[in-house]
Every structure is written in structure tokens, then in C-alpha cells.
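Request from the bench team (R.T.):
"We need a structural guess for the complex before ordering more MP5. Sequence and SMILES attached. Just send the C-alpha cells back."

Command: build protein-MP5 structure.
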Amino acid sequence: MTTTPSAPAPRVLSIAGTDPTGGAGHAADLKSIAAMGGYGLSVVTAVVAQNTQGVVAVHTPPVEVLQAQLDAVAQDVELDAVKVGMLGSVPVIETVGRWLAEHRAPVVVVDPVMVATAGGRLLEPEAEHALRRILHHADLITPNLPELAVLAERPVARTWDEALAQGRAVADTFGTRVLVKGGHLAGESTPDALVVPGRQEPAAQYGGARVATRNTHGTGCSLSSALATVVARTGDWAGGIGTARTWLRGALRAADSLHVGHGNGPVHHMHHVQDLVADPAFVSAAGAADDDAAPGRSGVGPRAHGVPAAGAGQPADAREADARGTAERFTDELWEDCAPIREEIAALPFVTALGDGTLERAAFEWYLDQDMQYLEAYSRALALLAAAAPGEEIREFFAAAAAAVVTGESALHRARLGGRSPEPPSATTSAYADFLLARTGQDGFAVGAAAVLPCYWLYAHVGTELTRRAHDVGWEGHPFADWLATYSDPDFQSATDVARRAVDRAAATADPATREAMRRAFRRACRLELAFFAQTADDAAGRP
Ligand SMILES: Nc1ncnc2c1ncn2[C@@H]1O[C@H](COP(=O)(O)OP(=O)(O)O)[C@@H](O)[C@H]1O
Ligand SMILES: Cc1ncc(COP(=O)(O)O)c(N)n1
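Reply to R.T.: structure attached below.
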């Protein structure tokens, strides 16, 4: 997004229903508008009792209340865009339709909401016809595939070509642009396309691998209000959709870190400012400095992969990546690339048993043993990285991380091994250790940093997932609760963020060959993480 600090915030009105869990409807709209730098206003059409698991009840206030809200806004505020979401019933649709006709905003986006992602009707069946009658007020409509099928009066599209054909038919029928969305298609990709009336070929197409998360509550609401905001500022539909999509994909990637609800949770609308608000420089600039901030944990704990005290080595320009707003980061590409490996890790018997607490003690102890062998090499690798680090702050971060691993490691040895000597390292453990030492010792900072990143990131990810599962089965008395808590700990998560930023910054100035070597190192480390989790004492001893 190319904005200057003085660019005025577009005033964007959301006309939508509510969601008390904050992920869809008017809450999602306001967050998304703010995330895109707009000023959000809100008129409520229906009060919906819903959560991440479904819709419980819908209460529609009298239309006079709706009319009064719309009038109150129109009499006082000049709007740059309107986004229409859930309308629900015929009287509400007709009231909003009349109002849109009288108060034309420069940008009008209608998301023809019919059902919630988690299930539950949000539009009365008899209201479908009324909804069709107001679509000509929209500059763009954003139906999902089932909604598109209703508007096209055809069965739900099962292929992307069918979806595009329905999109063209709907654009022609209603004389408006249609964003055809592939979120509901089966398969690994989520294409979207901008289709315009009277044109055979889409005006713009967007690709991208499906983000592996079940937390997609409110994606449609979020995308439509975000793009209304960007287009209000730029007037560019194809570009605005691209910007909003890139931001939404980041919000989907960060969704699992939110822990809201037990069903299809919300996306992380403010993912791109998360690091910014945790940055001490930002907090003090905002006038809320607290110089006595509590020190971070020392990173002592099983496989404490170097979690330096809070703030250590936080790059001064921690905002750099965020300041780029919605640009895809190099590490996003790495993360998407290793999605299949993440899925394999999540499905490993060792990992699932760790989450639900059924893993045998002996298997866990053997794993910890191997982990300690690994950590010895890992701390050396972090120290080598510190030596090669391009700047003081990154050097401090990795040096502190190396020290924290050594401290955590020796504490663990004392706590877990007692007087017993450790098992020898397995072939897998040795291979991973050798790989890290080679990449950090021989290949320079950029490749070395990419090689150690999975050890942070995959553990933060797996730890968060398993903690969620452990809460589902019962956290109290869970045999591995302390271990899991280490990795879902915010300190570990923010250390992961710093390591990620270090890789992004190194990639930004690296030549193509180095970037390719960084990709290879990251991928190989992910595979070694998979092998590390997959190994058992029997494999290592050559037992069948
Ligand atoms: N798992 C996912 N990964 C990446 N993009 C997704 C994912 N799920 C949905 N999207 C995107 O989110 C947007 C809205 O998704 P969609 O599911 O089609 O709409 P709705 O939320 O209205 O049902 C689309 O741009 C779609 O491509
Ligand atoms: C009030 C309201 N409006 C819309 C949706 C649809 O949400 P989604 O974006 O997941 O389709 C919802 N669940 N609640």
C-alpha cells in the first residue's frame, strides 16, 4: 500500500449484523477498515447471537431503528465508501436499498451474505429476491460460491471454470463487477477473480496456496470491507482487491495465534501491527512508556531455543516489515512452501499423542534426550550466527539466544537426567546438528539465519496448536502442559518474530542465488524437523 502519513483516512460505513465473538459482521468490518487505514462507521441491521461454532439466534430491530441510524450518519458525515453485509429480511433490504439510492457514496461494495461459515442462515429464504433487486446499487459484489450459485440460479460451482462462468452471468444480469471467490473450492489453492459486465475474460485474477487453518470465520466480511477502504483511497479496483487479499492472507496465517473460540475462529485483522505495538520504541512514542517493564523469562525450559530476555536485540527498525504494510514477506513465501511438511508434522503419532497427553513417558524422555544433544549444536550455531550478524542488534539477539539455550539446557540436564548419562545422538539428530553447523558456519548470515528459523517457527506453531489441543482434552493435570506452555509462551513467539525479521531483512538485500540458497536451507531444516519429530528410540537402535 502506498500511503503517506498525511493521506486522509477514507470514511467507510459498514451496514451489517453483529457477532459478539468479534470475528464477522460489523466487528470484522470495523477492524478491517481500520487495518487498511480507514475510519469505520457502523449501522447495525440485526443483532446476531453467534460464535465460532454457529448462529444461535437473530434479532432484527424495527426498521425505524435502522432508518434512524442511517439518517443519523447521512445527516452528519460525508462517506467515501459503503460496505453492505448481512441484511437478513425483506424490510431491512428494502430500507437499505432506498437509502443507497438516495445517498450514493463513491464506492459501494455489497457482500450478499446468506449463511455463516460455521453454519446458520443469515438471510431469510423469501428475502433472496429482494436482495437481487438492490444489487444494481453496488459497484462490486463479493458472493462466496454458494451465494454466487443462488444469484446465478445454478447449482454450486465445483470447478473454478464453473465459478467464473457463473460470475460472468451474474455480472451481466446485475450490471455490476463481481469478485468471484474460490475459498469454498476443494483443493490446495484459493483463486479469486474480478469479473466485469460484458467481458468474457476476468479483469484480474489472483492466485495463492490455501492457508492451512480452520480459522476462516469472517473472511468474506473482512475482505469486502478492506477492499472498499483501499478502493475509496485509490479508485483502483484490481489493485485494491490485490492489496486487501494480501493483507487477508497474512490475517489468515496469523489466525491460529488468536485462540478465540473452539470452532472456526476469526482471522487476525491486526497481524501487521502486532510487532509494532510490542516495540518499546512505539510504546514510548505513543506516550505510554514504562521503563520498568518486567524482564522476560530467561528461556529455561525443555528445548528453550534461545529466548533472550524481552527486548534484547529487538531491531530498532522492528517496524520495517510492518511499515511495508501489506507486502508479502520473503518468510511468508518460505512458510507457504513448507505447508505440506507442517501438515505431516501435525499428523505424526508422536505429535498428536503429545497434544492429547497420551504419549508414553519413555518416548517423551527419549525425545528430550535427543533434544539435548541437538541443543548443544544449536547453541553453537546461534553463536556462529551472532558472529556473522550484519548489525549490532541482530548480533545481540542471536548471542543472547545462544546463551539462553546453554542456560536452559544445563538446567534441563540437571532436572531430567539426574545422574544418568544421556543417550548417544541418533543419526537424525546428528544430521540435523551437522546441517545447522555447516549452514551457519560456512554459508554466511542470510543462509544460516534461514536454516535456524524453522527451529523457532515450527516450534512456536506446533506448540500453539498442541496447547490448543491440550486445552480441549483438559489442561489441568495434562502430563506435558509445562513443555507445551514453553512454546506457546509470548516470549517464544516474539523471539520467533525477531528471527523472522532478521531473515526478511537479509533476503531484502540478498542476490537471487543467495535467496535460492535461503529457500533451500529453510526447506531442508523443515524436513529435518519432521524427521526429528518422527524418529523413535526403536528406529535409532535399528529395532523393528
Ligand atoms: N484457507 C484460506 N486460505 C487462503 N485464502 C482463503 C482461505 N479461505 C478463504 N480465503 C479467501 O478469503 C476470501 C473470502 O473467502 P470465501 O470463503 O470465498 O468467502 P466467505 O467468507 O464469504 O464464505 C477469498 O479471497 C478467499 O480466497
Ligand atoms: C453478522 C454476520 N455477517 C456475516 C457473516 C458471515 O461471515 P463469513 O465472512 O465467514 O461468511 C456472519 N457470520 N455474521
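Two things stood out. DSSP finds 22 helices and ten strands in the chain. Residues 16-19, 24-25, 48, 50, 85-86, 113, 116-117, 122, 217-221 surround MP5 (ligand 2) (CB under 6 Å).
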